[in-house]
Structure formats: C-alpha cells, structure tokens
Amino acid sequence: MPLGMSQISRPPLVGRKPLRKKERQKGMATSWKFALKHDHNFFIKPELESPILTKKTKKKMDVEKVFHMTGGVGKTSYAKNSSLQKKASDKVKHIIIETVEELYIETTPKSIGIADLGCSSGPNTLSIIKDIFQTIQVTSHKIMHHSTEFRVYFNDLPTNDFNSIFKALPEFQKLLNQDRKNGFPSIFMGGYPGSFYGRLFPNSYLHFVHSSHCLHWLSRVPPTIYDEQKRSLNKGCVYICDKSPEVVSQAYYKQFQEDFSLFLRSRSEELVVGGKMVLTFLGRRGPEHVDRGNSFFWEILTRSFTILVSQGEIEQEKLDSYDVHFYAPSREEIEDEVMKAGSLKLERLEMFDIDKKEQGRESYGTDVAKAVRAIQESMVSNHFGEKILDSLFENYAMLVDEEIAKEDINPITFVLVLRKI
C-alpha cells in the first residue's frame, strides 16, 4: 500500500519533506509530502513525475505553482462559488451512478480504488464520493458481493486547499457510516497532490476515475504563442479570439493533444482492466474556435481588462502578456485522442448545456463572475496584483448581463465514459 492511505482522521498539518539529493541528481522533483497525525498515520503522497524547472518548462511549472481555486470558505472562495459546476455535476450524476454500478458488477473487486482528479476544495467532491459509495453499497447488496475496502484518493495541484477537505472528513465519515453494512467496507482516504498530466498511482491500482471541470485546463500556456523575445503573438486577447493569428489556435490545439493524450496514457496504466472513467469538461460545438459559447466568456474577460486599461488601472503591455491555459475541444478532437490512446474504449460521449434560470436575487452575470473569479483569482492576482480584482469582476458581471440581454450565451460541456480494454 502506498503512502497516502489511512482510515478517515482529523489531520492537522505537521511538516514538509525537502527534495532528496538523489532525486535532484536524477532530475526528478517531489511535490509536498505531509504527515498528518491522528490515531493512524495519514499521508499525502509525493509526486515523483515532474521534471525540475528549466527554461523550457518554465511556463508549465509556473501554472502548477500558482494556479488553484480560491481556498477557504470566504466570500470569494470556490467552496462558496461553485454552484454552476454543481449544476453540471447534477446533470451527469445518473451517468456516474450507472457507470459505477456496471463497473462493480463486472469486476466485483475485494478492494475498490477510486480517484477524484482535480478535486479542488469545495463540497462538490465529497458529494460525488458519497454518491459513488452509496451506489456501491446498494449494488453489493443486490449481487451479494461485499468489498472489504473502499479507497478514495483526492488529487489536485499542490497549491490546492487540501486542508478544507480534511477538515470536512470527520463529518463526512459519519455520513458514510450510515450506509455501511455490518461494518463493511473499511474506508480509507488520502490526498495526492500533483499534476494529473502524468503518472500519479501504481499500475492497475484504480477501478474508477472521476474528473469534473478540469481537463479544459492545460498544463501550461502553449509556448509557441510567444516569439523569440517571449512576447505574446496573441496581443489584445487572453484566449483564442477573432483577432488571433492562426498560429495561436494551432498552438492551443497542439497543447491540448499533448496534455490529453498524456492524461489518457497515464490513467490507462493506473486502471485495472475493465476499470472506468467519467470525465466532464468544457468544450465547443464545432470546428470554429470562436463562438458564443465558452470562448465568449474569455472575450468578455478581455473586455473587462480593457476597461481597466482605459481607466489607467493596468498597463496595455501587462494585458498583452496575459494568456490563459485553457482549451475548449470539439467532439472530433476528443474522439481522435481517445482513438490514438488505443487501450481505452469510448463508451459514451454526450454534450449538454446548463440551465441559466436565475436563483435568488443575483443576476446570471453576477453568478458567472463569482464563479470565474473563484477559478481565475490566483492567476490574475499573480500577474496583475490583487487590487484590480473587485473592479475587474464587477465589470465582468455587468458585461455578461449586457450581452445575455442582447443574445443568449451557450457554453457547452462534454461528459465521457471510458473503459480500459
């Protein structure tokens, strides 16, 4: 059993393990390894797959060091502003339940391993794990096969607020215990920090992998959108826009191919034969990169920045050097990468959009602005400073409401079910 597992415990932070000399010599870097004390040892696994920072990997490593959802439970936290993601998760909940039920019947594992990749720090991840656990309990009762162990691995970048998850575990354990039959299964949980664009787990270790609203985030801003002087070729836009030269869209697509293929290869090694994945992420309807869908929200963010430039809050040069590590793939682009992977069968690929009915007193624009801020705050504040955040996202909310009053905005989401063959 690898580091990272124990029965659920209340885990205060104890320490950090530095890079070992041999690992430095081999060109391997470890991410954090925390010992979390309670009645049992509770560890966060070190990530041993990422290369040491070099000039060529600088962009990628900066993303891994800086990017995270806003932690804690404050007004601008992801925990308080992830209702749109929850709506998407609720839309695919039946697919997750059906997939887990089929998986359990087909594999009847004694010890079942489940990973939530890109778990973030809000309540959504625990809600999904609870649904999976209840499904397994009901299914095991139907087929009269009871697993003795239920293993859950929470993964995200090292900058993620894992402590928020750990603090919620004691209460979460009480909920899970209500569904246990005769004390089975034993429940084990652990945190695995590190990029999922690479190996995280041993071979044939997992039965089910879940990832929600993560795979549209690239491992880095595509390096080929910069010239030899490190100046962006995409000036005036933070993502692919109607003014972007063709080389920009090509660079983003190439980076998606590189990242998604690596993700699929890595998970294929980690899944048992017959193991399954349910992946949910943002995309686009057709071949055109610029539409009134997910790309349009980035156009609105660019306009929000431009307002601040006109007011002297930020410099144009600063805006021109800001690019996002995002890509909305098409159905065909997704299918192509799965086919190339070879060892995974695409069992299901569906596209859906999210209901925009307003809830409460706030407008749709305000809801979207809060969600985008909780996601982008770390990157924006790192590049521009924290002072612009309030005015930036006030502008953003206003512009979204103005645009949606003129014509609807229709971002789409894909859900994939994959099986290892």
TrEMBL record:
<feature type="region of interest" description="Disordered">
    <location>
        <begin position="1"/>
        <end position="24"/>
    </location>
</feature>
<dbReference type="InterPro" id="IPR042086">
    <property type="entry name" value="MeTrfase_capping"/>
</dbReference>
<keyword id="KW-0808">Transferase</keyword>
<protein>
    <submittedName>
        <fullName>Putative salicylate carboxymethyltransferase</fullName>
        <ecNumber>2.1.1.274</ecNumber>
    </submittedName>
</protein>
<dbReference type="GO" id="GO:0008757">
    <property type="term" value="F:S-adenosylmethionine-dependent methyltransferase activity"/>
</dbReference>
<keyword id="KW-0479">Metal-binding</keyword>
<keyword id="KW-0489">Methyltransferase</keyword>
<dbReference type="InterPro" id="IPR029063">
    <property type="entry name" value="SAM-dependent_MTases_sf"/>
</dbReference>
<dbReference type="Pfam" id="PF03492">
    <property type="entry name" value="Methyltransf_7"/>
</dbReference>
<dbReference type="InterPro" id="IPR005299">
    <property type="entry name" value="MeTrfase_7"/>
</dbReference>
<dbReference type="GO" id="GO:0046872">
    <property type="term" value="F:metal ion binding"/>
</dbReference>
<dbReference type="GO" id="GO:0032259">
    <property type="term" value="P:methylation"/>
</dbReference>
<keyword id="KW-0460">Magnesium</keyword>
